[in-house]
Structure formats: structure tokens, C-alpha cells
Amino acid sequence: MCKASLEEWHRVNDQICIDTKYTAKGLVPGELYKFRVSAVNGSGQGEASVTVAAVQALDRLASPEIDIDASFKQTHIVKNGGTVTLQIAFRGKPAPLATWSKVDGELPVMADVNTTDNSSTLTIEGCTRYEAGKYTLSLENNCGRKSVTFTVKVLDTPGPPGAISFKDVTRGALTMMWDAPTTDGGSRIQHYIVDKREASRLAWQEVSTKCSRQIIRVTGLDIGVPYLFRVIAVNQYGQGEPHEMTEPVTATEEPCTTQESKCC
């Protein structure tokens, strides 16, 4: 063979080739080559047959593929403070660009990514409930795109409950509601703790220690006194962070003109 631009021929096969096909290796991608073949018998080497046109050496491109074996786990469960490692092997030509992302959020600050031409690993140390969620590895090259999603569950106490709202605010009583925590700590919410305090005081008073629903009727409030409330979710790992009101609510002597008010 020879490079088309040089016309300097050299032998390709180091050993005798008895077949009518041969794989030439070590070619430069994008370079143009010419090939010629001569048959040999007992009387010697015959006349060469030369390729009519030059042939360009091109990479065999392949879209990204994910290699999954028996050890693959889609869901990873880790205790609070532990480390989770998400690893995936892949192939493709050219080598795919690997990108990690977290569904509905950003990658944790403590996340470490290590990527080679055929694998990528995401390691998260010191996991808390906030590192729980879905993580996606996206692979992309000139031929296509592929992705795989992992679920990480962190066994921890729940996050704070959501927004608190009120209805049926009457003389000395009101109905209080709240949203469930966005993170349950990898365990079902067992119940809620509800506390109250007068806005002018610092000490919290117990309303309910085992409220099984996200609604409670609070009675016995002093008329005209502004109150603050807080709600704490509880699962098998303990009490989570409280959600506390920032603006007080008052159980008026006369019913409220608005049916419902919300406090963040």
C-alpha cells in the first residue's frame, strides 16, 4: 500500500497471505491510500492489480451503548452520613461525552465525578435526605445519545412539612392544614407533631404529639391573641426538621371574612 499523496509503496503483510482478503492496520484516519495485490505461484510473482481510486481510512463510528451486567442496581439505599457510588460502563466511537445530573435539582456539592473513555462514576459522600432523588447519566457522541437513571434513597428523618394553611377560623378555634414533606427520609411518615405558642412568648405548647392526618382542629385558643404554629414530621428514624410559621394567626371572636388564609 501507499499514501495516495506520496506514491511510496511498501509491503503490508508480514506473513504469507493465502486468502483473498486482508485487514490493513495502523492507518491514519482521514488519510487516502492506494492498494495493490500480486498473486504468487511456483514460477514467481505475477502482475499487480491496483485499486482504481484511492480509499480513505475512516473510523467506524458507533452510538453510545450502556453495558449492564448482573451486578447493576437501579436503586441504591444508603444510611444517613453514608457514601453512595453510582458506576456505569459504556462504549461508543468516538468516546461519548458523559454528563451527570440530578432530576429536579443540582448535583450535591460533595459529589465527585470520575470519567474515562468507557466508564463514569458518581460518588456522593456524607449523604443526607437532601441527596435522595434520581440521578441521570447522559452519554452523547456524533452518532447518538443514551441515558440511564438511578434512584438514591437515604434513610434519614423526614424533611420539614410544607406550607401551613387555615380555614374555619372562629372564636377561640381554627382548622389547621399542611403539606407533606418533599422528602420522607426513605421511610413512610408515621405521624406529625403540632405545637403552638403565643407570638409574644418563646415557649412552645403541645397541640398533638401523634396527629395521623395533615389536618387538625385546634380549640381553646385565647380570643384576640396572635399564635404561631409549627409542624414536625416523624418516621421510623425520628423527628424531622420543623416547619414554623413566620406570621401569626389570631382566632377572632367573629368568623373570618375569608374562608382560608395561608402562611409560608
Q: How would you describe this structure to a colleague?
A:
The protein has 264 residues and is mostly beta strands. The chain is built from no helices and 25 strands. The chain is 0% helix and 48% strand. The chain has 3 domains: 1-58, Sandwich (Immunoglobulin-like); 62-155, Immunoglobulins (Immunoglobulin-like, Sandwich); 164-263, Sandwich (Immunoglobulin-like), CATH 2.60.40. Strands 18, 19, 21, 22, 23 and 24 form a 6-stranded antiparallel beta sheet that branches. Strands 8-10-13-12 form a 4-stranded antiparallel beta sheet, with no helix packed on it.
Question: What is the strand and helix layout of this fold?
Answer:
Blueprint: E1 2-3, E2 32-34, E3 36-37, E4 40-41, E5 44-45, E6 49-50, E7 55-56, E8 62-67, E9 75-79, E10 84-93, E11 97-102, E12 111-115, E13 119-124, E14 133-141, E15 144-155, E16 164-170, E17 173-178, E18 191-198, E19 205-211, E20 215-218, E21 226-235, E22 238-239, E23 243-244, E24 249-250, E25 260-263
Give the gist of this structure:
By secondary structure, the chain is mainly β. It is 0% helix and 48% strand. It has three domains: 58 residues, Sandwich (Immunoglobulin-like); 94 residues, Immunoglobulin-like, CATH 2.60.40; 100 residues, Sandwich (Immunoglobulin-like), CATH 2.60.40.10.
Strand content: over 45%
Could you say what the CATH architecture of the largest domain is? Sandwich
Q: How many beta-strand segments? A: 25
The level 1 CATH classification of the largest domain is Mainly Beta
Biggest sheet record: 6 strands, antiparallel
What is the distance, rounded to the nearest whole angstrom, between the alpha carbons of the first and last residues?
77 Å
Q: Could you tell me the CATH topology label of the largest domain.
A: Immunoglobulin-like
Shape: rod-shaped
List the secondary-structure elements in sequence, H or E: EEEEEEEEEEEEEEEEEEEEEEEEE
Helix share bin: under 10%
Q: What is the structural class?
A: mainly beta
How many structural domains in the coordinates? 3
- Global Rg: 35 Å
Number of H- or I-type helical stretches: 0
